[in-house]
């Protein structure tokens, strides 16, 4: 009797939607009446609605892709460091852990969920003649499902 | 959200000197450039001044003597509880009754006046706020949006900042965490 045993390793090891693109803008907000940088056009209406500064100057823009469970670090103006780790994803909501360091001291740590493409603004720390506003925009990157282990064939 | 909507609820506490230094600086900086909030602050000061004037008891140097002088001419009357009060209590009763009436009138005026401010403050701090300004938290705290369709949910926030403000604008998919600087207070 030939016992046919079919084994199939399922898609347990498949990865789906495992990448996150994180966009960071470091903005100097001050009251020097110089308006908003043209490069901040996408953020301009957010900034003007939420704050009442007269100048918004883009100090740096950084864009990185990472995976869930992988920490990514950004250097910010004023010797600050931003660490972001995507934790997981729930539909359109991305769960992130964000830590802002001032030197080697953590200034703020937060766990939050935000809709993909939404913006978290962290502001307040002094920088030059104004305040620093950091915009954090996570974007889920959908990847095709790829099985990572072969399917075992039955033995005859 | 308008910056005044955030500052306005703090004006009363600022006027009374009840704000922390960071918040006080935040309000002071805003008021300098905002005619509307500056006027609001002036009004708060005027209300306080007028109330103190109203509550100050009038000077009645001969009041007691005048009342006492009239008492022997009238027989003692039964109080509504059926007890006869000795004459020396009457002056105190009348003064107390007058003060109570004045206090009641002033209290009613305060309620009417503050009713409008409270509803404005509550409107300003309702759905746009995930959490109001809080002192620095060393223990993790849960700050959750109550809206079922919220696009941001903060489950933990730890900071060394002396105070923190959190608010969101769901229509713009934007959430703000504001950490005033320890040295300056804010911009």
Describe the structure in brief:
Chain A is mostly beta strands and 156 residues long.
Spans of chain A with pLDDT under 50 lasting ≥5 residues?
1-16, 145-156
Mean pLDDT of chain A: 82
Approximate helicity band of chain A: under 10%
| Element order of chain B: H for helix, E for strand | HHHHHHEEEE
Which runs of chain B of at least 5 residues are low in confidence (pLDDT < 50)?
Answer: 79-85, 117-148
**Percent range for β-strand residues of chain A:** over 45%
How would you state the average pLDDT of chain B, rounded? 70
**How many individual helices of chain A?**
1
Q: Determine the number of helices of chain B (DSSP H or I, runs of at least 4 residues).
A: 6
Largest interface: A-B, 34 and 32 residues
The SSE string of chain A, one letter per element, is EEHEEEEEEE
Order of strands across the biggest sheet of chain B?
Answer: 1-3-4
List keywords for this structure.
heterodimer; A: 156 residues; mainly beta; five-stranded mixed sheet; disordered C terminus; B: alpha+beta; three-stranded antiparallel sheet; 6 helices; 48% helix; elongated
Element layout with pairings:
The complex is a heterodimer of chains A (156) and B (187).
Chain A: E1 19-30, E2 35-36, H1 41-50, E3 55-67, E4 72-76, E5 80-90, E6 93-102, E7 105-115, E8 119-127, E9 130-141
Parallel strand pairs in A: 2-3
Antiparallel strand pairs in A: 1-3, 1-9, 4-5, 5-6, 6-7, 8-9
Chain B: H1 3-7, H2 11-15, H3 21-33, H4 35-55, H5 63-70, H6 88-124, E1 129-135, E2 152-159, E3 163-169, E4 174-178
Antiparallel strand pairs in B: 1-3, 3-4
Helix pairs in contact in B: 3-4
Structure in words:
The complex is a heterodimer of chains A (156) and B (187). Chain A has one domain. Helices cover 6% and strands 54% of the residues of chain A. Chain A is built from 1 helix and 9 strands. In chain A, a hairpin with a 2-residue loop joins β8 and β9 (130-141). Helices cover 48% and strands 14% of the residues of chain B. Chain B contains 6 helices and 4 strands; from the N terminus they run ααααααββββ. Chain B has helices spanning 3-7, 11-15, 21-33, 35-55, 63-70, 88-124, and strands at residues 129-135, 152-159, 163-169, 174-178. The longest helix of chain B has 37 residues, at 88-124. The interface between A and B is medium-sized, with 34 and 32 residues.
